[in-house]
Amino acid sequence: MSVLLKVILSTLFVGLAMPLGATIARFENITSKNIKDELAHRVMAFGAGTLLSTVALILVPEGIANSTPLVAAACFILLISGAVILFVNIAFNDNLRIINQWQ
Asked: I want to staple 67 with a disulfide (CB 3.0 to 4.6 A). Which of 41, 43, 71, 100 is the partner?
């Protein structure tokens, strides 16, 4: 089997996962809201973990190999400043009950 055929077949099967999942979701009959919410939470957590591990294991090493220390430092500073803003926003919402602009 050629490499191109393997790629085409594997992407076909991966692409069919979305309509298959939508079909299963259409006919499922979970009546308890707690169980339904917990199932949705676990599926989303699994997907987020998969995407995060893909970025961490594949994209980050390639980006590090092709960047300069100045670019890496700028990305680190942006990451830290975003985390600081997140925690300040959480602190304001918890302590002062201030509504942020997206609510």
From this structure: 71
